[in-house]
Amino acid sequence: MDSLEDARALAPWLIELRRSLHREPEVGLHLPRTRDKVLAALDGLPLAVTEGKSLSSVTAVVEGQRPGPVVLLRADMDALPLTEQTQLPYRSQVDGQMHACGHDLHTAMLVGAAHLLAARADRLAGRVVLMFQPGEEGYGGARLMIDEGVLQAARDRPVAAYALHVSSRHWPHGRFATRPGPLMAASACLSVTVQGTGGHGAAPHQARNPIPAVCAMIDALPGYLARTVDPLEPVALSVGSVHAGTAANIVPETASFTATVRTFHTEVGAQLATGLTRLCSDIAAAHGVSADVRFLPEYPVTVADEAESRFGSTVVRELLGADRFEEMVHPLTASEDFSMVLAEIPGTILQLGAAPIGTDHRDAPANHSPRVVFDDGVLADGAAVYAELALRRLAASRDERLGQS
At residue 354, does pLDDT exceed 60? Predict the structure, then answer.
């Protein structure tokens, strides 16, 4: 049986694993229940398994029986701080935490790939590093795993690195997609705290209210972008939190807001870091208050290697059919900390449509929505694609080496 048939035979077990992960989501870097479920699912396989020191990561190495280089496969494991609002029978049992970005599917897929690869160790021309990563959602888990040595887990550094990511909205069920070059945006957080002078709401002239200054800053952001950034340069800015005050008749001492900023070029990010800081500081001064303005870089641009992206598209087309892949026309404005791996190792991320069969993905709740639903019918194909990326990439490296000898 080939890897696709084997993966589909594993599908009921992978669905059970995914739903178990979905019922008990964990947020951040420390995911003890998730880690233990992954370790249990890998138990009995001939893998070299290590756990993280500063985070609940799992790294497993599949050792091929033939010599060759190293390929890395990544799955993120963490959830989001959301209260689930679906009616799924396996919905989250943890209040305020939800797998709303599909990382439970990624984890189950990579576990499936581990079983497929272990069963094919005799065909494996090299080694495969399986990177089960916590803390993708804003915690820098990839950087921590790199610092702890995931890129040296199989002695030699990987020659290629791949990840899969499901989407409820961008593509039809079962459709894979990627593109070379900028694939996902860099992210930064604009954090502003305005310091005023508190007082009685009936005597506003005796206080310095920070709230109007914050409102003016937020109102000025779109116009600033329109006037200072090339209109052909993609930039996304969204204010995600605003905090001020405790009662209607109290002028508060402070008010604050945070916004996410997404860009695709380093120089644009640097321009906005300077310009937005100056804009907010000047508005604060005009209102007679002061502002602590911080532009905090988070993740760099995710840049997909051209050759590895072409290779990934070929694997999907040959394994599943030409109609199962499409080239992305535009990058996504979401961000990914797999960008930190791709900054050091050539590779790509394959996106996978996972809206429920029979629904129009264009109307589906998006990733990060408390109502998003991902169809675990894609698990087997995802596991097979993970495995085939490693098998075929290692075989290609071996063939190239033989051709040069």
Answer: yes
What is the number of other CB atoms lying within 10 angstroms of the CB of residue 131?
A: 26
pLDDT at res. 358: 85
Nearest to 67 by CA among 403, 405, 395: 395
Find the DSSP H helices in 263-343: 266-286, 306-320, 339-342
Largest CA distance in the chain: 86
Please report, for the chain, the start and end positions of each structural domain, with discontinuous segments joined by +.
Answer: 3-183+301-404, 186-299
Give residue 105's identity as a one-letter amino acid code.
Answer: L
Tell the residue number behind the tokens 């604060």, with chain if given.
284
CB 167 within 8 A of CB 367: yes
Q: Which amino acid is at 379?
A: L
Secondary structure (DSSP) of 262-277: EESSHHHHHHHHHHHH
Residue that the structure tokens 């992305």 belong to: 328
Provide the pairing of β-strand 325-327 with 290-299.
unpaired
Identify the residue whose tokens are 């194909």. Answer: 381
Tokens of 274: 């300077």
CA distance 199 to 203: 7
What's phi and psi for 398, nearest 5 deg?
-65, -45
318: left (phi over 0), alpha (psi -120 to 50) or beta: alpha
pTM of the entire predicted model: 0.90
Strands 254-263 and 236-244: antiparallel
pLDDT beyond 80 at 400: no
CATH architecture of 3-183+301-404: 3-Layer(aba) Sandwich (3.40)
For 226, the enclosing helix (H) or strand (E) is: helix 210-228
Amino acid at 3: S
Q: What is the pLDDT of residues 308-334, one digit of tens each?
A: 999 999 999 999 999 999 999 999 999
Planar angle of CA 69, 71, 73, nearest 5 degrees: 165
Closest C-alpha among 121, 125, 100, 94 to residue 32: 94
30: amino acid identity, one letter: H
CATH class entry, domain 186-299: alpha beta
C-alpha torsion 383→384→390→392, nearest 10: -170
Which amino acids are annotated catalytic?
76, 137
pLDDT tens track for 159-215: 999 999 999 999 999 999 999 999 999 999 999 999 999 999 999 999 999 999 999
Residue 251: C-alpha distances to residues 191, 208, 214 (Å):
21, 8, 14
